[in-house]
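Late entry, written up from scratch paper. The run itself happened at the end of the previous shift, but nothing got recorded in the book at the time, so transcribing now.
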Amino acid sequence: GANMAVMSVYHPDILAFISCKSVEGEIHNFNISVGVDSRWMECVMNNMSYDLINPHTNQVAGSLNAREVFNKIIDGAWTNGEPGMVWLDRINQDNTTPTLGQINATNPCGEQPLLSGESCNLGSINVGNFIKHNYFDEERFAKVVATCTRFLDNVVDANRHPTEYTTAMNQSTRKIGLGIMG
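Output as recorded:
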């Protein structure tokens, strides 16, 4: 299985997080991204320092130069593709369930922003299978999309989640993703 770890750029351990995958193969089955916002990016553009906030106390725990942190993110991404960056303020502007909480991460490949405890069941349809004699069978495709959507929704109920919380979150939000390939 794949996992996604996102740490806020304001977290006191952000430098260790950014470099945690600098040795290839040390951390398996995890993609990592830094959670950023527009305010931080303004600090990057203006070469300013910003405060690190202890998430347990909400107290200032130090400061870093935003551009230097950004350059470390770029260096890691250039070296091995990680960390990525997730603009959490922008994602939360489109949060369809804000009463359930803030979106803090995405699924491992970034297709679906997720609340804490959520997962996303993904599937794909090979559109190449709907071509016959240079004709795209739209009617059959529509039926397959409906069937696959129903199947993915049924998976939400069939899944055995690791905690009651994740079960409740997934059953209440029912996030699925049906893509195409071919």
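The longest helix spans residues 138-158.
(Scratch paper discarded after transcription.)
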